[in-house]
Amino acid sequence: MKKIKYLFAVLALSILACSDLEEKPIGLLSPEGFFQSPKDVETAVNGAIGHLQHENWWGRKLTIGLMLRSDMVGIGDAGTPARRKDHNFFTVLGDNGLITVFWPRSYQAIAATNEAIAGAELIAGNFPEEQLNPVSAQARFVRAFTYFHLVRLFGDIPYLDKPADNIDEALQISKTPASEVYANIIADLEFAKQWLPDQQPNRSKPTKGTAAAFLASVHLTMGNYAKAAEEAKFVISNESRFDLGLAADFQDLFNADKQNSLNESLFSLDYNGFSNGDNGRDYQGALTGIRAEIDDYGGGWSVAVPGINVYNTWDGRDYRKAVSLDTVATFKDGPQPFTKFPDYDPRNIPSAYIAKYTRFPGAAQDGNYRASSTNYAMMRYAEVLLIAAEAINEIEPGSAEAAGYVNRVRARARNRAGVMTAFPEDVAPGLSQDEFRDMVLEERKWEMAFEFGRWYDIARRKLGDKVFGPDGLEPQPNFSSARDYLLPLPSDELVRNPNLEPQNPGY
C-alpha cells in the first residue's frame, strides 16, 4: 500500500494555474483517505487540467513543436535551441528536448484523470450516479483529450486507464495499437457526452456539446465521415442549448479582456496572468513576439514566425489576416514596417509576425508577454462548422448544407471590426468533391491560423509532400512521408522500458 499511496500523492498534488478552477491543497493522502465526495473527484480533475496548463505542455513544449511542424510557421531566431529547429526542419530524434518533456507531462495528466475515475468508483455506493457521473465524465473527457494528442503524434502508445499500483509492473507496459487507443478515446467521449451537463459556469469545463465536438474531430481524423458529420450536426442543431455561437468580431477571440464574455469556445485552457514558476505560465507571446519592439511587455523572442509566403499568399481583403499578423511594430525610432524589423535586432526576420498572442494578452506579470491572461480555445464553434462541412462533402458531394456551414464562418469574417465587407465571398456553387475538400482545408488554414491545429490537418490528410514541396508555403526538403507523420517515441522511455520497442519507422 505504501507504493500506491506515494504514487497518488505525486500524481494528484498539482498546483493549478487557472483562475476558473477551484483548488485546495490535498496533502499526502491515500485514495481511500482523500476521495469522500464528488467535489474531491473534481479536485483531482482540476489537477489533471493543471498539468495541461504547465509550461511542459500547452504553455510551451507541446505547442511550439506543433506550430513549427506546420507549413505556416518557421524559425525566426536562428540561434534558438536545436530542439525547436529540429521540429521545423524535420530532423527530430528520440532525444528531442520537447518530446522528452511533454510526453511525461501528458501521462501525469492522464494519471490524475485515472485517479479521479478510480476515486469516483470508490465512493460510487455513497452518491447517486446523477451526482457522481457528471464529475467522472469530466475526467474521462480530459483523459480522451490528452490521448487524442498523443495518438495523433506517436501512433501506437501505452494506454493506461487505471492508477499504477505497482511501479515494477508499470515499467513493463507495452504499446497499445492506435486503433485501440482511438476506440478507448471514443468510449470516454461517449460517456462524457452522456453525462456532462449542457452548460458549465465557464469554458474551462467541458460540456455535452464539448464531448460531441471532440467526437466529431476524432471521427474526422479516423476517416469516419458519417459519424463526424453526425456528431458535428448534433452540436450545431443544439447551439442554443449549449450556449454556442460565433463571436461577432474575430479579433475579440484573441483579446484576453473579452474572451470570457464570448460563447465560441467549447473548451479552454485559461491563464490568469500570474507567474507561479513554470506551472501555468504561458509563453506563446514570448515565442512569437518581435524582438526589440517597444511595448508594455518588452517585446518577444522571434522564435516562431510565419514565412513571407504566408503573408504574400493570404488575401489582404481577409480581416482574419489583419487580426492574425503584425505588419508594423514600434521601435526606438517609431513605427516600422516588417521589412525593417531586422534593422532593430538581427534575430528578427523581414516578415509579418503572429499577432494573436501579443496584441491583447491582458494582464501579464512577467516580461516578454509571459504569464498572460489568454484563454486558449481547444475547440472553437467555427471548427465544428468546418468539421461538419468537410465530413458532409465526403458522404454527400455537392451538398448545399455543407456549403452553408462554411458560409457561416465566412460571414463572420466579413465583419471587419463592425464594418461589413464583401470578402470572403460565399462558397462558389458547383464545386467538385475534390475542389470542395481543398477549399475547406484552406478555410481551416486561414480561420485557425497559428492555433496549433494545422499540423494535424497536414498529417490526417497526408499533405506533407505537397505543402513542404518546392511550391509550398514553407519548402522543407527533409520532410519524409514515410517517417514524419509520426514523431519518434522518446528515447529515454525506450531505455527505461524496452517493451515500447520498436521505435517508430525511420527514426
Task: Give the structure's gist in a few sentences.
Belongs to the SusD family. By secondary structure, the protein is mainly α. It contains 21 helices and ten strands.
Characterise the protein shown here.
By secondary structure, the protein is mostly helical. The protein has a domain at 272-376. Helices cover 45% and strands 6% of the residues. The protein is built from 21 helices and 10 strands. It has helices at 2-12, 31-34, 38-53, 61-69, 82-89, 99-122, 129-154, 167-170, 178-195, 208-222, 225-237, 284-288, 308-313, 319-324, 341-344, 381-395, 400-413, 433-447, 454-460, 464-467, 491-496, and strands at 74-75, 265-270, 304-305, 325-326, 328-331, 334-337, 353-354, 375-380, 415-416, 419-420. The strands form 5 sheets. It has a two-stranded antiparallel sheet with strand order 1-3. Strands 2-8 form a two-stranded antiparallel ribbon. It has a two-stranded antiparallel sheet with strand order 4-7. Strand 5 and strand 6 (334-337) form a beta hairpin. The longest helix has 26 residues, at 129-154. It is globular, with a radius of gyration of 22 Å. It starts with a helix and ends in an 11-residue tail after the last helix.
Which class do the helix and strand fractions yield?
mainly alpha
Largest beta sheet: what is the strand line-up? 1-3
Q: Give the proportion of residues in helices.
A: 40-55%
Mean pLDDT reading? 92
- Kindly report how far apart the N and C termini lie: 40 Å
Strand content: 5-15%
Q: Please report the number of helical segments.
A: 21
Number of strands: 10
Low-confidence stretches: 1-29
Please tell me how large the radius of gyration is.
Answer: 22 Å
Largest sheet: 2 strands, antiparallel
Shape verdict: globular
